[in-house]
Write a structure and sequence with these properties.
The protein is α/β, with parallel strands linked by helices. 45% of the residues lie in helices and 19% in strands. α6 (182-203) packs antiparallel against α8.
Length: 314
């Protein structure tokens, strides 16, 4: 995949970091951004502040998706609730053979992409990174070794995912790995992210606070096991012992940590509630799987979510 042209749609904490690292390594990257963030990058380049080294570079950045017409590979790095409309606006401009993937939280990205692209053009993906827009034009990488897992939507490691791993992986600054079972990897991340986001948002407590109080720790444990039950009903080989390992991992996290969804609720912004606990509740109803904790989380937080969207009529 020599001379591969990469398009990244969404210049937030993850998309901005990955774009910066690939551009720093000399890859052909075009970034799609918007608003003040777009204007700042145009004016003064992209800044990435990271424990693995800071970056300040000029990068091709546009707010017009037509500039991606020659892209070979396009990564969608928006919030989950932005994905459908974003893909709808971008897809008419892409080449018929362009490969696409998204790194949204949740497990519904592939289904959204499939509404616009042939299945053979779609890869599954998930990422691990804690990063954010510190201010327009500046991405701060806070923690976690940056990682992207890529895989075919069926199973097994293909020649093209191996080639992407070789072309895109940069060592500790950004590890890209071809996965033989990307659906399992998506659900593993979801198993952690949905319960922690939901319990933290409902209790308005840090990770250390809700994991350290017996009743909320029990809620957390139940929420983990509901995700496993739904995953298994969807045909994903997620094991109950994985929930135990995730709970052990949560015990190692900084006590003052909070999820991005919890911070969005605190700031009155639209959140990924529908893609997290809301998605588990929806799948539970469809599959006749009981999900009382995620139902409670979704129903409790829904008024705040509707308020943030401007849809709550008082």
């Amino acid at each position: 995949m020599n001379n591969m042209k990469i398009g990244i749609v969404g210049a937030g904490g993850a998309g901005g970091y990955f774009a910066g690292r690939w551009a720093e390594a000399g890859l052909d990257v075009t970034l799609i951004a918007r608003g003040r963030h777009f204007e700042a990058i145009v004016a003064d380049g992209l800044h990435v502040l990271s424990p693995f080294g800071d970056i300040h570079l000029s990068i091709p950045v546009h707010n017009n998706p037509a500039t991606l017409a020659s892209a070979d590979l396009v990564m969608f790095a928006t919030k989950s609730w932005q994905l459908h409309d974003t893909v709808a606006s971008v897809s008419p401009y892409l080449r018929p053979d362009a490969l696409v993937f998204g790194i949204q939280n949740g497990v519904g990205t592939i289904d959204v992409l499939a509404d616009f692209f042939p299945v053979q053009n779609i890869l599954g993906a998930t990422c691990r990174i804690i990063s954010l827009i510190e201010k327009p034009g500046i991405i701060r990488h806070v923690g976690v070794e940056p990682t992207i897992l890529l895989g075919e939507t069926t199973s097994g490691i293909s020649e093209r995912t191996q080639q992407l791993e070789s072309a895109l992986s940069l060592g500790e600054q950004l590890s890209v790995t071809a996965s033989p079972d990307i659906m399992l990897e998506l659900w593993k991340k979801f198993l952690f992210f949905a319960p922690v986001s939901g319990i933290g948002s409902v209790t308005r407590s840090s990770i250390g606070e809700f994991r350290g109080v017996k009743p909320t720790r029990e809620l957390l444990n139940s929420a983990l096991r509901e995700v496993v039950a739904v995953a298994q009903a969807c045909g994903v080989s997620l094991k109950q012992k994985t929930a135990d390992r995730v709970l052990d991992f949560i015990d190692t996290l900084p006590a003052d940590g909070t999820s991005s969804m919890q911070r969005d609720f605190a700031d009155g912004r639209r959140t990924e509630l529908d893609a997290l606990s809301g998605h588990i509740s929806k799948l539970g109803r469809e599959l006749d799987i009981s999900t009382p904790v995620h139902d409670f989380i979704y129903q409790t937080l829904l008024p705040l979510e509707l308020k943030a969207r401007g849809e709550l009529q008082c």
